[in-house]
């Protein structure tokens, strides 16, 4: 705030900061540079936390993960043109995954961009962003900053959450206006994500269909975790007695060790269930679009789907009982309808699931008990599984191919929103951004389980983790390459195969360069000691976990998407 002719004024920089603070947003993830460097300095001076990254994509991923964890839009701040483009991957990924975030980018002036006069980093950023997010807005005048941020917040969190782009041309920040008028122009968003109550007839239709089921199944998606309706979701599952199957980021809504969990009998329940209730889950490719052998075709199956978006219904298969509304309201209404006289599922169904679950868990247990040297994915993940069991409050971040696939089924989760992974797109590179967001927003220990290829996308953010002294332990599963480190150049030339990395690389040395703790682990015992010490210390740590380079499989569990790997079969 400044004085002009004895009248206090306020500039665009401070209007942005005050608008965010007014809406209880106190953290910015970003990367300083022209024209937003001063904004980051002023935001910090005004008491906001500014987490500065080494690359905008990772700042964007952090903002998206913060949105998922807090139900408030995470803020990513970037420079214009290339910086803006770097943030777009995270913005698009947030929209696809229904994570609320706002990408705020500085930009060139409209009058030059529109005439294509060759301005510094000239780009029509608004036009580029529009197809990749829920909404996009440009603010040209200081008096509209409050409206712009209010609209962005409401767009990001209302209905199906997602990404929003805010375009702030450079000269907006320097604009000034009367301080009192400026404060009055700011908007405190009231009820940005209003409840959407389901229709009574829709709830009754769903309950009537569930009552007819001989082999019912509840499928929990990450939308159920985002909803933070944890108690009601657990009560609905337990009151009905229906087996449930969590998608990866819904793990922990009920403990993975719960007696009704069907995770260890996933293939069986998907194929054999006759009525499936989807809570915050979409029948996309991760669920084979609700079709085919995965779902027991040609056996008939009926779906109940709880979703806030009516256009999601029937997007792949017919939905017999849609329940439209916010997940909390829908689950609450269903719970009331269940009452006290609900008949549990037939014992033949639950017993069949229990038999297969115990058989598969026993088989997995025998595998996890082995401690080969070098480690394989199972023996290394068995160590992490035990540590997470002892620290259920720890947040697990997970990406890679085999590292992701095996961890999903091996590392049990016990509390909601404690697992963050690659989501709907299966996108690599989310690791360090998600880990930073988890540590910053919760203060809890973070264990990032990384394939060596996936780690390469964001590994430079180890400096960011050390700079802010965050309680993050990164474990790099080092098998010398993508999937495996055993491919060879078919020509016999000096270049290694495209999937092979430097043999026996010491990733632990990277963090040591920034003052963190690096550990080289070649056995399960060494990994166990290092991980326990890292979690207990709360200090930045990177463990280079040496994995047998022959242990991986081509494309992990999505071989069907890799034509050449499929051909090899």
- Overall average residue pLDDT: 95
Q: Compute the number of helices.
A: 23
Give start-end ranges of low-pLDDT stretches: none
User: What does the largest sheet look like?
Assistant: 6 strands, parallel
What is the C-alpha radius of gyration, as a whole number of Å? 25 Å
Helix content: 40-55%
Q: What is the fourth-level CATH superfamily of the largest domain?
A: Thiamin diphosphate (ThDP)-binding fold, Pyr/PP domains
Give the class-level CATH name of the largest domain.
Answer: Alpha Beta
The beta-strand count equals 20
Query: Which fold does the CATH topology of the largest domain refer to?
Result: Rossmann fold
Distance between the termini: 68 Å
Shape: globular
In terms of DSSP E residues, the strand content is 15-25%
Describe this structure in words.
The chain folds into 3 domains: 2-185, Rossmann fold; 200-355, 3-Layer(aba) Sandwich (Rossmann fold); 370-568, Rossmann fold (3-Layer(aba) Sandwich). The protein is of the alpha/beta class and 569 residues long. A 6-stranded parallel sheet has the order 4-3-5-6-8-7, with helices on both faces. It contains 23 helices and 20 strands. Helix 12 runs parallel beside helix 14 and helix 16 packs parallel to helix 22. It is 40% helix and 17% strand. The longest helix has 22 residues, at 347-368. Strand 1 and strand 2 form a beta hairpin. The radius of gyration is 25 Å and the shape is globular. The mean pLDDT is 95.
């Amino acid at each position: 705030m400044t004085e002009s002719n004895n009248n206090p004024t306020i500039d665009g920089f401070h209007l942005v900061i005050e608008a965010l603070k007014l809406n209880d947003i106190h953290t910015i993830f970003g990367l300083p540079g022209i024209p937003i460097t001063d904004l980051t300095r002023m935001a910090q001076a005004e008491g906001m936390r500014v987490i500065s990254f080494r690359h905008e994509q990772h700042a964007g991923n952090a903002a998206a993960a913060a949105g998922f964890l807090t139900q408030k839009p995470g803020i990513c701040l970037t420079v214009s043109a290339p910086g803006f483009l770097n943030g777009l991957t995270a913005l698009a990924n947030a929209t696809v995954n229904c994570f609320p975030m706002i990408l705020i980018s500085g930009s060139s002036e409209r009058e030059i961009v529109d005439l294509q006069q060759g301005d510094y980093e000239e780009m029509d950023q608004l036009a580029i962003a529009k197809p990749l997010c829920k909404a996009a807005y440009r603010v040209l005048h200081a008096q509209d900053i409050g409206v712009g941020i209010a609209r962005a917040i409401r767009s990001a969190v209302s209905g199906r959450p997602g990404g929003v782009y805010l375009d702030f041309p450079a000269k907006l920040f320097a604009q000034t206006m009367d301080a009192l008028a400026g404060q009055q122009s700011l908007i405190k968003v009231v009820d940005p994500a209003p409840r959407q109550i389901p229709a009574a007839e829709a709830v009754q239709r769903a309950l009537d269909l569930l009552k007819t089921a001989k082999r019912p199944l509840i499928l929990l998606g990450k939308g159920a975790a985002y909803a933070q309706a944890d108690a009601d979701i657990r009560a609905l599952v337990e009151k009905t007695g229906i087996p449930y199957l969590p998608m990866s980021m819904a793990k922990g809504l009920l403990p993975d060790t719960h007696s009704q969990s069907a995770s260890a009998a996933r293939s069986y329940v998907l194929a054999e269930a006759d009525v499936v209730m989807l809570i915050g889950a979409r029948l996309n490719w991760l669920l084979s679009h609700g079709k085919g052998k995965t779902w027991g075709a040609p056996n008939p199956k009926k779906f109940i789907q709880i979703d806030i978006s009516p256009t999601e219904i029937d997007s792949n298969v017919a939905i017999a009982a849609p329940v439209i509304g916010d997940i909390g309201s829908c689950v609450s209404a269903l719970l009331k309808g269940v009452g006290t006289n609900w008949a549990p599922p037939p014992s033949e169904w639950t017993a069949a699931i229990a038999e297969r679950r115990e058989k598969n868990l026993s088989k997995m247990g025998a595998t996890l008990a082995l401690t080969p040297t070098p480690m394989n994915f199972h023996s290394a993940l068995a160590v992490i599984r035990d540590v997470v069991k002892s620290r259920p409050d720890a947040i697990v971040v997970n990406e890679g191919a085999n590292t992701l696939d095996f961890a999903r089924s091996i590392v049990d989760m016990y509390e909601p929103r404690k697992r963050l992974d690659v989501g709907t797109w299966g996108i690599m590179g989310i690791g360090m951004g998600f880990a930073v967001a988890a540590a910053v927003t919760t203060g809890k220990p973070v264990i990032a389980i990384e394939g060596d290829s996936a780690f390469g996308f964001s590994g430079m953010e180890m400096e960011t983790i050390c700079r802010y002294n965050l309680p993050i332990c990164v474990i790099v599963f080092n098998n010398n390459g993508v999937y495996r480190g055993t491919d060879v150049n078919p020509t016999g030339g000096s270049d290694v195969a495209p999937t092979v990395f430097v043999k026996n690389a010491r990733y632990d040395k990277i963090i040591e360069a920034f003052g963190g703790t690096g550990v080289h682990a070649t056995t399960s015992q060494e990994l166990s000691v290092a991980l326990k010490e890292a979690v207990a210390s709360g200090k930045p740590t990177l463990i280079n976990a040496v994995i047998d380079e022959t242990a991986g499989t081509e494309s992990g569990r999505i071989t069907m998407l890799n034509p050449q790997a499929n051909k090899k079969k």
